[in-house]
Amino acid sequence: MKITVIFLLLLLVCSGSTDQNKEAEKEILAQQITSLQSLPQDILAVLREMAVTLTQQKFDMRLLQTENKEHAAKLERQETELKKQETELKKQETELKKQETELKKQETEVDKLKQQLKVGQVAFSASLLATGSGYFGPFPTFTTLIFKHVPTNIGKAYNPHTGIFTAPVRGAYHFGVVHRNTWRSPGFRSCVGQELATNCDCI
């Protein structure tokens, strides 16, 4: 009789504990269901934010692409304009070189004209002595008389060291020579001769 009573008590305790476990499991399940029900809403919110961000990024990307195309087109136009300017600059440099060459030619021509103008007026006067009188010769051969006293020498064509006159330009030249023989001696005969030579040829 005692044994039966104890078994019934054990059955009651076990059944009581089983009911408690079921209630706990129900509570846990309810919490999980609640968390699962709230989870998709959070995911949707995140997805929506991501979609908005992606749309904004796409818009920004298209805007940047458009700006890049505009910048590329502008850069290409600037490069084309720069090439044109370089070509024009080269042309100007070539023209400037031509003008410089022409200017040098003109300067050379002007210098020649100035030189011709300077030597265009040629005149000189010279004598063997500055003052007084003296004797020269006799000479056994033809000798160049050097007129060292030169009061006038326009154009510097006469060289008082060599006695040679060099014509600087083509033209007609007039030469006048005056000499005087004052030597007298009984029984002797004096003779004075002169010749004008050009390029070592007497004329």
What can you tell me about this protein's structure?
By secondary structure, this protein is mainly alpha-helical. The protein folds into two domains: 21-120; 121-167, no CATH class. It has one helix at residues 2-119, and strands at 123-127, 149-154, 158-159, 164-165, 197-198, 201-202. The strands form three sheets. Strands 1-2 form a two-stranded antiparallel sheet. A two-stranded antiparallel ribbon has the order 3-4. The protein has a two-stranded antiparallel sheet with strand order 5-6. The chain is rod-shaped, with a radius of gyration of 65 Å.
Defining traits:
about 10% strand, signal, 6 strands, Tumour_necrosis_fac-like_dom, disordered N terminus, about 200 residues, 2 domains, C1q domain-containing protein, mainly alpha, two-stranded antiparallel sheet, Cerebellin_Synaptic_Org, single chain
Short summary:
By secondary structure, the protein is mostly helical. It has a two-stranded antiparallel ribbon. A two-stranded antiparallel ribbon has the order 3-4.
**Helix segment tally:** 1
The biggest sheet, with number of strands, parallel, antiparallel or mixed sense and barrel status, is:
2 strands, antiparallel
Strand order of the largest sheet: 1-2
Give unreliable regions as ranges.
1-17
* Radius of gyration computed on alpha carbons: 65 Å
Q: Can you count the beta strands?
A: 6
- In percent terms, what proportion of residues is strand? 5-15%
Shape: rod-shaped
Order of helices and strands: HEEEEEE
Question: What is the overall pLDDT average?
Answer: 76
Instruction: State the separation between the terminal residues, measured CA to CA.
Output: 188 Å
Total domain modules: 2
Secondary structure category = mainly alpha
Q: Determine the fraction of residues in helical runs and give it as a percent range.
A: 55-70%
Protein name: C1q domain-containing protein
Keywords: Coiled coil, Secreted, Signal
Domain C1q: 117-203
InterPro entries: C1q_dom, Cerebellin_Synaptic_Org, Tumour_necrosis_fac-like_dom
